[in-house]
Amino acid sequence: MTNGRLAVQVRFLALLTLLCISAMLSLAYAAPKAQMLKPFTSLSDASKQCVACHKEQNPALYQQWGRSKHFGANIGCYECHSADPNDADAIKHEGFDIAVIVSPKDCGQCHNKEVAEFAASHHAKAGQIIGSLDNFLAEVVEGHLSFNGQSPAAVSGCWQCHGAEVKVLKNGDLDPTTWPNTGIGRINPDGSVGACSACHQRHEFSMVQARRPEACGKCHLGPDHPQKEIYEESKHGINFYANVDRMNLDSSKWIVGEDYDAAPTCATCHMSATRELPLTHDVGARISWTLRPAISEKIDAKALAQGKKVKSWEDRRADMKKVCSACHTSPWVENFYQQFDHLVVLYNDKFARPGKAMMDMLAKHEMLTKQQFDEEIEWTWFYLWHHEGRRARHGAAMMAPDYVQWHGMYEIAERFYIEMVPQYIEVVEHAEHAGKSEQAKEARALLDEILSRPEHAWFSGKEPDSVKQKRLEAQKAFKQRYLSESK
């Protein structure tokens, strides 16, 4: 019996040793933890003076700071707002040189990794929109340069998401057309780009707040990029709001599949750590298609073709699949991406490329003026790709069927066939009457070629009779079923 007990004890110890080794290995290979910053032992004298006043003058800011991790680390007002006297936006305040704006350069004193990742992201370039069609609409078509030489529509609209170039007036004040502004691509007086407070709201900088979908919803919503609404329609969004109490949003590492499993948020897929990936502040690092322009392309395809060293779309997609695999099987993920890819290709080939070719043809032969948005077809084309086209593509990317169909492809098709094609013919006819016979002939030939393609055969009347008959039979069966059910 003694030998038997000894054998059991040996086996138990061996098993315990294996479990310990396994646990140590899992810790060694786990995703990197959040950056641990060494706190100050006490609040600085400068910050103590700031707090003494602002506690009375701005009690809400004081309370927010008091709930923050900065408070726990003795990082106060002065540590973030101190400035060099030579800084463009430096002011004298109660004997101190400070700057109202806390820029990524300031945050980078402690959060250097996060700032470097953000600087490499598309978000960091969001403020460079002066020459865009969107900004032209806000400055000229919708607006007027009546507010210190700027359009109020751009100041309170576009720039609050994209970011403004913050300017300092001659008297040292911040130009009210550019401040306040928490646009994600803000161009700061110190030369840095971005606004950490676009996502991490002052002065609490709560992880919980930044991880919720509402953090992204300030900008990613509306008729042309409704990612917030799309998320809410998707199974992911439905699960999040139903199970938010199980999301463990205040976890320090917050690894999907370990710390929570109810649903992903925007941060989960685009930024947060997984069992295999570290946290990143480059929100585009896992995106494989660009769904913003008129015609979608694989991310960085052009850069790679030019020999530039950038992360390929295949590698980006592989990273996103690692996020998906925390909750889904490989076949599920692969099939989803096939569905997504085919929708984007359908949009590109059936509507976007033909539409762009038609607009390019009109521009080539100067059948339109050089001014944007002064002719109906320019509005029609803009709606097609900038609004409906984006909605359909983002709907497919984030699994929101209503945005793919009724807010997307349905409206794209109506816009193309019922508005754009007739408007194109009208413009060509006007050019022909103005003496551009050869140019009109070339423009008509392009439209004929487009509409002769199989995907447009229903519209041109060239669809095979067998296909028509099959659809008619299906429609008849559908009507009969509904008639029988109504009796």
UniProtKB/TrEMBL annotation:
This protein's UniProt keywords: Signal
The UniProt record lists the keyword Signal: yes
InterPro entries referenced in this protein's UniProt entry, alphabetically: Cyt_c-552/4, Multihaem_cyt_sf, Multiheme_Cytochr_ET
Domain Cytochrome c-552/4 span(s) in chain numbering: 107-166
Superkingdom of origin: Bacteria
Gene3D superfamilies registered for this protein in UniProt: Hydroxylamine Oxidoreductase, Chain A, domain 1, Hydroxylamine Oxidoreductase, Chain A, domain 2
Signal peptide range: 1-30
Annotated protein name in UniProt: Multiheme c-type cytochrome
Species of provenance: Corallincola platygyrae
Lineage: Bacteria, Pseudomonadati, Pseudomonadota, Gammaproteobacteria, Alteromonadales
